[in-house]
């Protein structure tokens, strides 16, 4: 009767948690503490009021980090956009000025060529 399993069963029987797992017991304790805090809220207001000094300014940190990143990335994105303007304008001109049956035939031919 000196095995660890037997000791765990004995401890569980003392606690009255025969069929409950460790997670279930932890969840029940959490719920009971939460209910106690809500019931004692009027007598002890500090139980439910989170101290303002403990709040981290994470929103400000993320905002300043994104501002720094965007300040670094914007020139590169604008350069890429300016460079892509020329091929996009050429594609737009080509697609706008050719007849649609020719466009459909070219698309089918391209698909046929890629498939074979």
Give structural notes:
- By secondary structure, the protein is mostly helical.
- The protein folds into two domains: 1-51, no CATH class; 56-116, no CATH class.
- The chain has four helices and no strands.
- It is elongated, with a radius of gyration of 34 Å.
- It starts with a helix and ends with a helix.
Which helices and strands occur, and which strands form pairs?
Elements: H1 4-15, H2 22-39, H3 58-97, H4 100-115
Helix amount, in percent?
over 70%
Mean pLDDT: 87
Uncertain runs are none
| Element-by-element helix/strand order | HHHH
Overall tally of structural domains: 2
Biggest sheet statistics: none
Q: Which overall shape is indicated by the principal axes computed on the Cα atoms? A: elongated
Outline of the structure:
By secondary structure, this protein is mainly alpha-helical.
């Amino acid at each position: 009767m000196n095995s660890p399993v037997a000791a765990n069963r004995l401890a569980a029987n003392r606690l009255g948690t025969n069929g409950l797992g460790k997670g279930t017991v932890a969840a029940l304790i959490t719920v009971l503490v939460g209910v106690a805090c809500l019931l004692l809220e009027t007598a002890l207001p500090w139980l439910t009021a989170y101290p303002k000094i403990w709040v981290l300014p994470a929103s400000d940190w993320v905002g300043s980090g994104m501002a720094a990143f965007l300040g670094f990335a914007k020139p590169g994105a604008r350069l890429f956009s300016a460079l892509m303007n020329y091929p996009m304008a050429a594609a737009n001109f080509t697609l706008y000025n050719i007849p649609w049956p020719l466009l459909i035939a070219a698309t089918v031919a391209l698909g046929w060529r890629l498939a074979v």
